[in-house]
UniProtKB/TrEMBL annotation:
It comes from Pseudoalteromonas xiamenensis. One of its GO terms (biological process) is carbohydrate metabolic process. The keyword Hydrolase applies. Residues 304-768 form the Glycosyl hydrolase family domain. This is GH92 family glycosyl hydrolase. SUPFAM superfamilies: Six-hairpin glycosidases. Keywords: Glycosidase, Hydrolase, Plasmid, Signal. Its EC number is 3.2.1.-.
Amino acid sequence: MKRSALLLTLICGLTSALFSVAVKSANLSKTNLDYVDPFIGTGGDGHLFPGAVVPFGMVQLSPDTDNPMRGESPQPEIYKRCAGYHYDDNTITGFSHTHFSGTGHSDLGDLLMIPITGEVKTSAGTKQDPDLGYRSRFSHNKESASPGYYQVELLDYNINAELTSSPRVGMHRYDFKGQKEGHVLLDLTAAIYNFKNKVLWSDIRQIDATTLVAYRATNGWAENRSMYFAISFSKPIQRLDFINEDNMRYRCMGCLGTSKHSTIENKAVKKASGKALKVVASFNELDKEPLLVKVALSAVSRKNALENLTTEIPHWDFDKVRSDAETQWLSYLNKVNVEGTNAQKRQFYTAFYHALQAPSLYQDVNGQYLGVDGEIHDGKHFKHYTLFSLWDTYRALHPLLTYVDPERVSDMIQSMLVHYQQSYEKMLPVWSFHGHETWTMIGYHAVSVIADAYLKGIRNYDVDLAVEAILKTSNNPVYDAIPEYLTYGYVPRDVLPESVSMTLEYAYDDFAIARMFESMGKQKEAATYYARAFNYRNVYDEETGYMRGRDSKGVWEPDFNPMEAKYMGSYTEGNAKQYSFYVPHDVAGLIDLMGGDTQFEARLDALFDTHLSAEMIKEHEDIAGLIGNYAHGNEPSHHIAYLYNYAGKPWRTQERIRQIMNTLSSDKPDGLAGNDDVGQMSAWYIFSALGFYPVAPGDLSYAIGAPQIDRAELKLPNGKTFKMIAQGLNEENKYIQQVSLNGKPLTRSYITHNDIMAGGTLHFVMGNEANKTWGSETKNRPVSLSEYKK
C-alpha cells in the first residue's frame, strides 16, 4: 500500500508538472490578439457589435439580430440594439456593413445581406416567428469572433457564414455545405432602429456578370445621409430579381409571391430604383466551393466605391484579408503588454480593441470625402475621420490615442478643422458622423481634444486654423446659449434646459483653451478663458451645497431635488449629486466651496453610499452601473472616484476603483456597466487598470488610482517604454503602500505627461491596509486651477 501510494504520488506529481509546463507553453504561444473577445459588451446595455472591423475602419461588418421598427417595439428593446446585435437574441436578420460601437443612439446598418436557400422570403419576419421571413436562427455554440473576423452558422439554411474586412471593404464567405443552389438577399430597406420612410431613395444596377452597384439615402439620426456600394460576387449571377415594395412602381415581370412585389428579371432590365428595394441574386454550383462576396463603401460615388473595392481587395483570398486584418490589430495591441489573470487580460485587451474602432475613416482611396456642407472635398494631404462623440470621448479616449497613435490624432484634429470650415454655423464638431452634425449632447469638447493634443506636442495640422476655430466655437452666438453664458457667467435655466451641465462643461472647456493659449504666449486670451473657467462658481448654491439651476434673474430653481434626473431638467443625463462634482479642472476650488477636505470626503461617500431609486432616473435609460448615486455607465461620473486624491485621501480612491472594477465589469457578454460610448468606457478601464486617469485633459496630469493588473509596458511613439509594476497586487492587497518613479520615491498622488513620455518605471508596492499618509499633504495632491490662478 505504501509503495502504491508513493508511486501514485510520483505519478500525480509528474502529471501536475507536465500539465503546468503545458499550460505555460500554451500561454507563451498566445498573442495579445487571443485575449480579445468581441462578444464582451454585446449583452446588457454595452451596445457593442461582434463583427469584423480593422482599426478605425470605415466598414464595420457585423450581424444584425433585429432591426426593430419604431412603434413595433418598446423603447427599451430598441435601446438595447443600438449596435444592431444583442447577445440575448437567437435570430439573425443578416449582415450589414456600418455600425456604431457602444453608442446610446441608433442609426446605420447600411446594406444588409443574408445568404438563403429554398423558398425566398423578402420580409425579415419576427423574432417571435422567424419562419415568417428571411431571418435565421443561430446558436452561440456555433458562433465565433476575433479581431477582424466573425463566423456563424445560419441554422435555418445550413450555411456557414464568415466575415472579414479591410478599411473600406467588407468580405463575406458563405459555405452552402453541399447545397447546389442558393441565393443572396440584399435588403436596401433594412436599417438599425428603422422607422417608416427612413429610406428616402435607393437604386441598384448590374454592371457585369458578377458586379452590382447601389446607392441609398436615409433619414435617421443623420438627415439625408448617403452611401454608395460596390458589390462583387465570386461566381456569375444566374438570376437577379429586383423587388420593389414601393406602391407597385414597376410592372411585375415574374413575381416572387404576393402582388406587392414587383420583380424585374436580369434578362429584361438590369436596374431598379425606389424607396423599398430588395434584390435576390441566385447562384448554382455552390456545392463545389464557397461563395465569396466583396462590398465596398463610399460616401462620394459608385465609381469611388468600385475603386475602393479593386484597390483594397483585388483578389478573392478571404484568409489573406483576415490575416491582414489581424496584423493590423496586432500592431496596435502590441503597443501595450500586460500581465495579470486571464480574465484581466481579456478585459484589458478587449477594452483596447474597442477603444481603437472610432473615430473611423471616412474617405476613399483617392482622397475624396463628403463634407458636412454636402460637397465633395479632396483630402489627399490627410486622412479624414468621422464619428466624433465628443461629450463622451474627450474624457479618456482621446487622451489615450495621444499615446497610441499621435499621427492619427493629428488627422482627427484636421478632420475637426475642416468640419469647422465647412459648417454653416462655423462650429467644431459636437456629435457628428458621416458628414452630418447631430447637435447631440452639450459642450464644445472638440477644444479639449485639440488643447490636450497641442500641449502634448501633437501639432501636425493647421495650428492657426485651430486657434480660429476654437475662438469662433467658444463664442458662437448660435450655439446652446453661449451669448447668455458670456453675459451672466452661467446658462440661465429659463433660456435652455440642461443649463447647469452646460455651464460646468463650458467652464472646463474654457480651462483647456486657456492652457493652450497660455502655452502659445497668448496671455491676454488665456486670461480671458481662465476667468471663464471659474464660471462653475456661479451655479453653486451655498444653501443646498449643490450645483443648481438659476434663471436669468438669478433665482434658484424651485422644488429642487438633488437626486432627481429629469428629462429637460437642469442636468444632462444626470442629477445634482453627480454633476456637483463636475469641476475637473479646479477640484481644490470645489473642495473649498463644499467646506474643506473632511466635508468633501463625506460628500463623495454620500454619492457612492446613498441609494438612488429607479423612480428618480426613470426618464434616463443612460444612467446605469450604479453604486449608490455614482453611475459608472454614464460619463459625468467617470472622474469622480479619483477626486479623493484632491482631498488628501488617495487610499479612498484606491478602494473605490477596486469596488468599481469588481462590481461593474467582467469578461462576459454583459461585462460593461453601460454603453461603451465609442470607446470612452473602454478607455476608462485601460487607464484605471494601469493605475492612473486623466481627470482634466489639458492639464497634463493623471491622478493615481490603484493598479488592477500586475504589470504593464506601454511602447511610446517616441521609441521609449513606460512600465508599470504592481508588486504584491492581489485580491486583498488593494492599497498602495509606496510608489517610486524610476527608482526614486514618489510622494505625489499624480504623475504627469512628461513622466510618461520620458519612459522608465512606475513601481507600486501594494498591501492589505491603507497607507493614510502617502499623498495626503497638500503639496502632493494633483494641481487645481484655483491654486495657481486666483
